[in-house]
């Protein structure tokens, strides 16, 4: 099975590379659609057998049955949730990462890969405005990124409280965030057995310093170990008032975490950079390059202003790891939940190195340009109404006269024809249409064609 010279391996190698080339060259990719388990049972049958079904057959099943049963999240008219639109270069390099058997949890084992990942992290840290000593790690997604940052925040608060006789008994530990914050914040609170306290939104649906102050005072600021602001909420794309939130966090000495999983990428775009004013004061920050920075799944950049605080919270100690943990090296695993890790930042690094950061700024700007076009088109059409002026690249709007069932029927209809994947969302109990535009190949024509289906 491990023989590198077996004829089947050479053949399969060629076929796998040919498939990858073909898939990456499809323009447009088919949207495809999910199938029921019974359909897949019938189409593919039993694939795990004592003798094996051969690589050729498994690849054929993948090509003809399994892949077409998965939505193409990189389709230009896939505008639901948050799409993923990897550059061809980053997707190709993912094959190289898999072929290279790199363990990227430690410097000892993965120095070259970790060094390259850290350069890519540095570009992001510079966009945020974090100091030279800041740093972090690429983790699987925003959920783990947020959890890891919050664990470091609580570890820091506990260490401080332990030194103070009054603080030693703080219970429960609290996190402040708005109800517009991502569900992963509630999930992290659950995992950490912390209490999530909701801060009321201002009239622009943002977290602000004054509202935060009121909530902190109400519950006792000493019980909060973190404040989470969002730089681009997932549902509406709203950027909180980071400057006033940062100021209140600094005043009370509370860890300021910014969740930019979706919207952090906008830092690269000069036309919206001003919305992030104050982000440079954050203690930790995340952004998912697999969302709006054109990397394949799964890739979240987690950064700490002071990486020592992340390390203190996350380093795992075990006899068999002593050789790693006692070395002064930069071990990525020391900065997040999780130990074993693939060099998941490398596909992003490769594409960034190849194309240069200007191309990234231009690609993000291109999606913002299409967003502005969509906004204007919605304004122009009498039966459509914008719900909120987009801060970034999420557009939420209503179709006047439609019931929730009308939205659902419309969404099914354009999906069944393989034309577009746009599922409805809701805000304050109302069903609405939503576009998340993070794919630079999504064009004005795509937007017009989708809006035409709502007439
Ligand atoms: C998507 C998202 C997350 C979760 O990220 P995953 O990569 O899906 O785990 C967290 N926060 C925000 C604002 C998001 O948009």
What does this structure look like?
- 44% of the residues lie in helices and 12% in strands.
- With 455 residues, the chain is α/β, with parallel strands linked by helices.
- The chain folds into two domains: 97-355, Type I PLP-dependent aspartate aminotransferase-like (Major domain) (Aspartate Aminotransferase, domain 2, 3-Layer(aba) Sandwich), CATH 3.40.640.10; 357-452, Aspartate Aminotransferase, domain 1 (Alpha-Beta Complex).
- It has a seven-stranded mixed beta sheet, with helices on both faces.
- Helix 8 runs parallel beside helix 9 (242-252).
- The radius of gyration is 23 Å and the shape is globular.
- The mean pLDDT is 96.
- Pyridoxal-5'-phosphate (PLP) is lined by residues 82, 141-143, 146, 182, 184, 230, 234, 259, 261-262, 288, 300.
- This is Pyridoxal-dependent decarboxylase.
- Its cofactor is pyridoxal 5'-phosphate.
- Belongs to the group II decarboxylase family.
- GO terms for molecular function: aromatic-L-amino-acid decarboxylase activity; pyridoxal phosphate binding.
């Amino acid at each position: 099975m491990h023989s590198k010279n077996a004829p089947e391996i050479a053949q399969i190698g060629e076929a796998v590379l040919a498939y990858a080339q073909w898939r990456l060259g499809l323009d447009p990719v088919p949207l495809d659609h999910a199938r029921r388990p019974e359909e897949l049972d019938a189409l593919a049958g039993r694939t795990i057998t004592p003798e094996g079904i051969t690589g050729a057959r498994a690849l054929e099943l993948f090509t003809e049955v399994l892949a077409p049963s998965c939505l193409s999240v990189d389709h230009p008219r896939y505008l639901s949730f948050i799409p993923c639109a990897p550059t061809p270069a980053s997707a190709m390099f993912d094959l190289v990462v898999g072929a290279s058997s790199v363990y990227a949890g430690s410097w000892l084992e993965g120095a070259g890969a970790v060094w390259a990942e850290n350069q890519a992290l540095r570009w992001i840290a510079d966009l945020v405005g974090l100091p030279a000593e800041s740093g972090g790690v690429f983790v699987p997604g925003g959920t783990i990124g947020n959890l890891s940052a919050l664990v470091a925040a609580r570890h820091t608060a506990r260490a401080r409280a332990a030194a103070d006789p009054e603080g030693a008994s703080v219970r429960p530990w609290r996190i402040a965030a708005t109800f517009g914050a991502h569900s992963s914040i509630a999930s992290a609170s659950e995992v950490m057995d912390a209490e999530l306290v909701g801060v009321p939104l201002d009239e622009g649906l943002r977290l602000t310093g004054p509202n935060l102050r009121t909530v902190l005072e109400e519950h006792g600021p000493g019980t909060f170990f973190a404040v989470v602001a969002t730089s681009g909420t997932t549902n509406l794309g709203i950027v909180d008032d980071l400057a006033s939130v940062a100021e209140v966090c600094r005043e009370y000495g509370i860890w300021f975490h910014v969740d930019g999983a979706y919207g952090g990428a906008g830092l690269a775009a000069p036309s919206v950079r001003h919305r992030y004013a104050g982000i440079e004061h954050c203690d930790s920050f995340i952004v998912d390059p697999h969302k709006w920075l054109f990397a394949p799944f799964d890739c979240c950049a987690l950064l700490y202003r002071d990486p020592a605080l992340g390390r203190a919270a996350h380093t795992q100690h075990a006899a068999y790891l002593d050789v790693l943990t006692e070395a002064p090296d930069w071990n990525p695993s020391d900065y997040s939940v999780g130990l074993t890790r693939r060099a998941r930042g490398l596909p992003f690094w490769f594409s960034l190195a190849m194309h240069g950061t200007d191309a990234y700024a231009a690609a993000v700007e291109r999606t913002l340009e299409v967003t502005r076009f969509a906004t204007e088109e919605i304004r122009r059409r009498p039966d459509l109404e914008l719900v909120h002026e987009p801060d970034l690249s999420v557009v939420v709007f209503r179709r006047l006269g439609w019931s929730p069932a009308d939205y659902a029927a419309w969404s099914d209809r354009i999906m069944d024809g393989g034309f577009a994947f746009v599922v409805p969302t809701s805000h304050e109990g109302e069903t609405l249409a939503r576009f998340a535009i993070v794919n630079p190949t999504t064009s004005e024509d795509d937007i017009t064609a989708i809006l035409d289906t709502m007439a």
